[in-house]
């Protein structure tokens, strides 16, 4: 299952709050229908029925069922070298 670093938890929670997403909402990760092999991140009010839900303190990440196997052994982190919240995926340690 996808895990989150502390900086990713903070970034997800802050983004959702700034966007006015309901407390049960969060960041959804799914394969992009427009670009094969890339991921699409969106803020949503609720997960889709078949989404894998990663609840980590105040951060909620929803992973599309078709995307979950790809992210199973990865960790969501932020890239401090990028301006604003930029997310990266890395192998779990």
From TrEMBL:
InterPro entries: HesB-like_dom_sf. This is Fe-S cluster assembly iron-binding protein IscA. It comes from Luteimicrobium subarcticum. The lineage of its organism: Bacteria, Bacillati, Actinomycetota, Actinomycetes, Micrococcales.
